[in-house]
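Deliverable D4.2, example record:
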Amino acid sequence: MSGRFKAITDACRELGVADTLLYATDRLLGKLPGRFRIHCHHLVVQPVPDAAALPQRLLDQIAVEDLSTDPDALNALPVPKPVLEDRLRQGSTCVGVTRKGVLLGYGWLALEAYEDDEFRVDYRLPAGIAAFDLDVFVFEQYRGLRSFAYLWEGLNRELRRRAITTTYSRISRFNSASIRSHTRMGARLIGTLTVLQLGRLEYTVTRIDGRRRLTMSRRQRHSIDMAPA
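Output generated by the structure prediction step:
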């Protein structure tokens, strides 16, 4: 019991009481048969730096590859095939970063718009200057060896090549480590997204630029303008 109590107090200290309760609710819902979840996310925007942050001797060790055109590489990723196909249908790019020929991780970049593959939400982006980054993933055996920094250097290199100046993303409010990492890279909170899934029914609450919107749908997708006028 003491161990469980410590876990609860640690979570409250890390996430706050409200998000700890939401996290616990999500875990309980996830144990039910069917599709029952509550997703709580920050919506953030971060600048693409004008130049690399790592020293040249480290940059010389990495290479950036477009995995989108390599079926074998894509099939080796821990991503379900229907999700892969949907991202490619949207025109998203899978960027892989290698170090001395070894794939450390990857990330996906969507331009102008992104249709979420977890729930029925679409994100509209400023045309020509913005991207949406998602599923930024470092393989477990390479975590902690500067791999996250290498991966973001690779993603930023690709974004600069495409003349993209800002990238948007959603981050789980329950993932404190990811929130801290994005904050260190200059990410700024622009809104929140909460999705309650009850079977095929989805309740979506968004807040962008102080405007709150509630939608409920069994099939229809909800669109979010990430840079409202």
